User: What shape does this take?
Amino acid sequence: MKACLYEPLKNLKVQCHMCSHRCTISEGQRGKCCVRENQGGVLKTLVYGRLIACHVDPIEKKPFFHFMPGSLSYSIATVGCNFSCRFCQNSEISRMPTDQNGKIAGTMSTSSSVLDEAQKSGCRSIAYTYTEPTVFFEFALDTAKLAHDRGLRNVFVTNGYMTPETLEKIHPYLDAANVDLKAFQEKFYKEVCGASLKPVLKTLRLMKSMGIHLEITTLLIPGMNDDPVQLSEMADFIATELESDTPWHISRFHPTYKLTDCPPTSVNSLINAREIGIQAGLQYVYIGNVPGDNGENTYCHHCGKLLIARWGFAIRKNRIIDNCCEFCKTVVPGIEMSHT
Assistant: This one.
C-alpha cells in the first residue's frame, strides 16, 4: 500500500516525513524503520494490516493510570521500529525486520475486524503499542477514525519521534498518549537509541498544546539514565512545560536484548527517582514493574487520601467520584477517572 507523508525527489529517491529521522530513501531501499520501502519512486508501507500482536490488556499495562482506570484496551502492533534501543523490551517484533534480513511477519487484518474483536472483548479503547505506532501509521489512522465512529477511544504508546505533520494528521482521533521519555541527554538518545532527544521534547509540547491526554514513562537503567541531576532536569521539564499534573511513570529495568550485562534497577533507585519528581512539584509520580509497592497507587494531590489502590494492573479500590476526590472534592486530572 502507498504510504502517506512522503515527498518524491530526483533520481527516484523519496523523503519520508513520518518521523523525525526524515529518511531519504533510494529506489529499492527501506527507511530506518525497515517497514517503508521505495518501490520505483513510490514509498510503500509493508505492514498495512499485517498485525503481529492483538491482545486484550488492562489500560494500566500501557501504562495509563489517569485514563479510564480499570478498563480494557485492545492492543495491536506490527513489526518494525524507528529506534534501535539496546534495551528494547519487545525486540522480537520491533527489531524483526532489522535483525532478520528484512523479514515482515504478521497476520492480515482489517480495521473493521480489529474493532469487532475489541467490542466483543468489552474493550473501551484501541491501543497502538508494543512497537512504535508511527511505523504502521496508515493502518493506525484508518483504525482510529473507525474507532471514534464506534464510540471507542484511541491511545498511542510511543517514543514520541513523530513529525508535527504526523501528529496533526492523527490528532483529531488520538485521545491519549504515553510517551517514553527515555533520558534527558542527547548522548543517551544517540548512542543507546539511535535517535535524538529534541524532537521528542517538541512532540511532548505539541501534544500538550493539542489537548491530548499525556502520560510519560521512563525506564530507569542503572548507570545509564539514573543520574539524579539528569532526573531532576527531566522532572523540571515535565512540571514546568507540560504541567505538574502530568503523570510520570518510572519503571524498573530488567536485562534484555543487547543490554544483558546491566543489572535490574534497585527498588531504592526507583524510590529516589520518584522523590526527585515529587520535589520538582509533580503531583503524580508512579513506580512501575514493582508490584505491591505503594508507588503504583493514586493519592489526592490536595488532601493526600488514597483514591485508587492498585496491585499490578488490577484496581482494588477507586474513591474518585465525578472525576473528583471523594474526600475533599478536588478535581483529579484525567479522562473518566471515576469508578463505574
User: Anything to note?
Assistant: The two ends are 42 Å apart (CA to CA). The chain has a mean pLDDT of 96. Residues 36 and 45 are 5 Å apart (CA to CA). The first helix runs from residue 91 to 94.
